[in-house]
Design brief:
This protein is mainly alpha-helical. The chain is 75% helix and 3% strand. It is globular, with a radius of gyration of 21 Å.
Length: 308
């Protein structure tokens, strides 16, 4: 009966970080710098991989797609956040909110599967080097990347349909700086049991399956590295994995903290900053990690900058 008197909201208010004007200016400058570094870094990685023939390998093909996903996921969140930091009214239309949910879910799950594919790539390169050219063929790489996007698209469609069936009548303030599934579920006046089950199941299924691939790959990789006799051989072999391992640790650590605890994810300030790490900082760090720790990327950059 309550639902029959429901007036569906047409827009949501975003709580953001703070109402203090000076703090908002500092945050604007900080996030603007972060976003600029994200754009330059990820575009730079994509251009560098395309322009450098010796980077035309499965590892860098996957890295180029990771950079593209990071660029897209950051652009979905950060520009709107920057506008809100400088605006008195922090709001987003209902349609825009659903679009943000859809796109962020698409690229978030796609990145998770791309990181798993990159772990498998390192596993084949180190544990089965003779089979590597056969297994990681261009066709296989294309299928891995296409599959990552397809799973991301499927998740995005499913989550968005689940959100579109909910009613929002009373409160329209999202205690976050963008539209995310967990706070939207908390705002809904409908029965959210099914939506919570879908969210938790998707986060657990996709997150656990991808992290399991990464974990098993690195268990095999470490076992293989430990069997190498020379210390220099161990160091060189492991150095090919450190960039990816660092990226994986940041991404899965922040995303698990965010989405495997959906009820309380936005109830505390510390959780909000964990979301910042997952949505804003990680896309900036990935190209920096790969460019600073990867010798091949640094050499390709030197060669490219020497071309007149």
């Amino acid at each position: 009966m309550a639902q029959s008197n429901c007036t569906q909201v047409t827009e949501f208010s975003l709580a953001g970080f703070t109402e203090h004007p000076v703090t908002q200016v500092y945050l604007f400058l900080l996030f603007l710098l972060t976003y600029l570094v994200t754009i330059v870094g990820n575009l730079g990685i994509i251009i560098l991989i395309r322009a450098s023939p010796h980077l035309h390998s499965p590892m860098y093909y996957l890295l180029g797609n990771l950079a593209f996903v990071d660029l897209c996921s950051s652009t979905i969140i950060t520009p709107k956040m920057l506008v809100d930091l400088m605006s008195e009214k922090k709001s987003i239309a209902y349609a825009g909110c659903m679009a943000q949910v859809f796109l962020f879910d698409v690229f978030g799950i796609s990145e998770s599967f791309l990181l798993a594919a990159m772990a498998y790539d390192r596993y084949m390169a180190i544990c089965h080097p003779l089979l590597y050219p056969l297994v990681m063929s261009p066709k296989c790489c294309f299928q891995l990347v296409s599959g990552s996007y397809l799973v991301g698209l499927t998740n995005g469609v499913g989550q968005t349909i689940s959100m579109s069936t909910l009613s929002f009548c009373s409160s329209s303030t999202i205690d976050l700086f963008f539209c995310d599934i967990s706070p939207l579920i908390s705002l809904s006046t409908s029965n959210t049991t099914l939506s919570r089950i879908i969210l938790t199941t998707a986060a657990s299924l996709f997150g656990v399956s991808c992290s399991l691939v990464v974990l098993l790959s690195y268990v095999a990789i470490i076992t293989t590295i430990l069997s190498i006799n020379s210390a220099e051989g161990k160091r060189k072999t492991f150095s090919t994995c450190t960039s990816h391992l660092t990226t994986v640790s940041i991404f899965y650590g922040a995303s698990f903290f965010t989405y495997l605890n959906p009820i309380s994810v936005t109830s505390r300030g510390a959780d909000k900053w964990a979301v910042v790490l997952y949505t804003v900082v990680t896309p900036m760090l990935n190209p920096l990690i790969y460019s600073l720790r990867n010798k091949e990327v640094k050499e390709a950059l030197k060669k490219l900058t020497k071309i007149k």
